[in-house]
Design goal:
Structural class: alpha+beta
Number of domains: 1
Strand order of the largest sheet: 1-7-4-9-2-10-11
Radius of gyration: 17 Å
Helix content: 10-25%
Oligomer: single chain
Largest sheet: 7 strands, mixed
Order of helices and strands: HEHHHHEEEEEEEEEEH
CATH topology: Jelly Rolls
Length: 288
C-alpha cells in the first residue's frame, strides 16, 4: 500500500512530535461536517440520557454520536495515522473543541496523555481536524517542537474557569518564545504525539473556531490504572485483546449506546481524577 506521508514528513514528525498542516479532506467536505455539527447543536442541545450535548462533544462522543465515529474512520486520516502507528488502529476518544468568537477560552500548556493512564507510550497520536478556519487569530494550537522526547512533565491543576481542560492543568515555565503556531484551513489536520507540549489562545476572530480531536492508539497500549479500557477498532485487528472493543453507534443516542457510555464514563472517571485536589469534570482533557 502506498504511503500517505512522505519519508520527510514522517522524519519531521519523529523529530518534532508534531506535523502540520496535513490534508485530511477537501474544504467543502469539512464545511459539510461543520454544518452537521451545528445541526446537532440546534436540534439536540439538551442531549440524552441525563447528559447535555456538550458533554458528548467533549467526552467520548464517538460512542453515542454516529457522526463523530464516522469522522474518526475517515480513510485519509486513517492512512496518515497508520504511517505513524502501524496497520492496527483503535480510537480511544473523539472530542470537539469549539471556541466562540470573543469568549476568552484558552487551553493551557499541557501533554495529552498526562491523565490518560497510558503512561509515557509512543503509540498514541492525536489527529486534530479543522472544520473552520483555525487561524492564529482564531486561537490555533501552538506547539513546542521536540518536547515529546522527554517524559511526562509536572502539571499543576488550576481549575481556571476559562480553561477548556478538565482540571485546568498547566505545565509551568514553558518558553513562549519557542512556540510554533499550527494554523489550519478547513479540511486540514495536525498530528501530535501524546507528550508534545501544546496550548491555544482565545479566539479573536469573527467566526467560530471548530476542531475535532481524535486520539488513536495501537492494541499494544495498556492502561496502567485500569484493568482494560474501552476503544473502537477502526483498522486492522486487535490480536492483543488488551482493550474492550466497542462498536460505533447505530443511531444517535441509541439506548444501548447510552448504557455503554455510562459504563465507560464510570470506568474512566477514577483515572482522570487521580491525584486531583478539586472536583474534576469528566472532560477528556487534551488537544486544545
Amino acid at each position: 500500500m502506498a504511503r500517505a506521508l512522505s519519508f520527510e514528513d514522517l522524519a519531521r514528525y519523529r523529530r518534532d512530535g508534531v506535523l502540520h498542516p496535513v490534508p485530511a479532506m477537501t474544504g467543502s467536505e469539512a464545511t459539510i461536517l461543520r454544518a452537521e455539527v451545528e445541526a446537532l447543536e440546534r436540534e439536540h442541545k439538551a442531549g440524552a440520557g441525563g447528559y447535555d450535548l456538550n458533554q458528548f462533544f467533549r467526552v467520548n462522543g464517538q460512542l453515542v454520536i454516529p457522526l463523530l465515529a464516522e469522522i474518526a474512520q475517515t480513510p485519509r486520516i486513517l492512512d496518515v495515522v497508520a504511517d505513524i502507528l502501524g496497520p492496527n488502529l483503535l480510537v480511544w476518544s473523539v472530542e470537539l473543541f469549539i471556541k466562540e468568537p470573543g469568549d476568552g477560552t484558552i487551553v493551557s500548556w499541557h501533554q495529552d496523555i498526562t491523565y490518560s493512564g497510558m503512561g509515557e507510550t509512543d503509540e498514541e497520536v492525536t489527529a486534530w481536524l479543522a472544520l473552520s478556519d483555525v487561524s492564529v487569530e482564531a486561537g490555533c494550537m501552538r506547539f513546542i517542537s521536540g518536547s515529546h522526547k522527554g517524559g511526562i512533565a509536572p502539571h499543576a491543576d488550576t481549575f481556571a474557569e476559562a480553561n477548556l481542560l478538565s482540571r485546568g492543568q498547566e505545565i509551568a515555565g514553558v518558553d513562549e518564545g519557542k512556540a510554533v503556531p499550527g494554523p489550519l484551513k478547513p479540511g486540514e489536520m495536525s498530528l501530535h504525539h501524546g507528550r508534545t507540549f501544546h496550548a491555544s489562545a482565545p479566539n479573536r476572530s469573527t467566526d467560530r473556531r471548530i476542531g475535532v480531536a481524535i486520539r488513536y492508539v495501537t492494541p499494544e497500549v495498556r492502561q496502567a490504572d485500569m484493568a482494560r479500557d474501552y476503544a473502537m477498532l477502526v483498522r486492522g485487528k486487535d490480536a492483543e485483546r488488551g482493550w474492550i472493543n466497542v462498536a460505533a453507534p447505530s443511531a444517535l443516542f441509541d439506548p444501548a449506546a447510552l448504557a455503554l457510555y455510562d459504563e465507560v464514563l464510570a470506568a474512566q472517571a477514577a483515572t482522570l481524577a487521580a491525584g486531583a485536589e478539586g472536583d474534576v469534570a469528566l472532560h477528556a482533557g487534551g488537544s486544545s
